[in-house]
Amino acid sequence: MRYSLLLALTMATKATALVKPLTSRAAVVAQIPKLVDLASACGWDFYGPDEWQLLADAACDSGWVVEGDDGKLLGCLLRADYERANGLGMMLVSPSARGQGLGKKLMNAGLDAVPADRQACPVILGVATEMGRPMYEKMGYCVTNQITSLSVADATKLKGCVSADVDIRSSCCAADIDAIAALDQAATGLDRKRALQTLLDKPGALSALARDKASGEVVGAAISVQGRDGGR
Fold it and tell me: What is the pTM of this model?
């Protein structure tokens, strides 16, 4: 089980010298080989080079890492700035370095880096595993939603009843990104157009829009991308 978490920024903490900042997208990308190794050590084998590159392209222009004496990463945290929120995510700590407070030090570095003019915005942590949940709650986060996964072998099984008042059609990715981004922002409160555009630019990406037949207003949208295993 993973959890969606939200924290209002009400504290000031100091980063530690153990934490190395990544101050640009290029710096994040340069760490991808090591990030892949860290993810694998944490049991996240599904985060390969393409997945980390997608995160960097979509929203993550900065982050923090902790390196061991051998140069391998012991931990990482990525940051994404949205119009109405400060995003932190992909916080991983190597099993060999757990219990040393590295997770909290990474989170404190992320909180410290929020600019003064953005401290009125909440700090959003996209998802947390059950293992990480106690640490986040001690830092003041609270659970806002629980997320479960669903595996469907045949995508046609997902098709349900559609209202006769709605018209659903495959969309032109380039032409309809504004409509999809506007709908996403209305639902989440976040300006994620760059992230959505990055998804739609992936080879094989598909999208669909649902419009009210009377008004033409976009009332729903879906994006499908291919995974490394060929699934969507």
Answer: 0.71
A 10 A CB-CB count for 206 gives 15
Chain CA centroid to CA 182, Å: 18
- 115-143 pLDDT tens trace: 888 878 877 766 677 777 788 788 777 77
* SS3 sequence of 30-50: HCHHHHHHHHHHCCCCCCCHH
Burial degree of 79 (CB within 10 A; 0-12, 13-18, 19+): buried
Encoding tokens for residue 5? 């978490």
Nearest-angstrom CA–CA distance, 60 and 78: 6
pLDDT digits (tens, 9 = 90+) for 175-196: 678 888 888 888 777 788 888 8
In terms of Cα–Cα distance, which of 165, 162, 161, 163 is closest to 215? Answer: 165
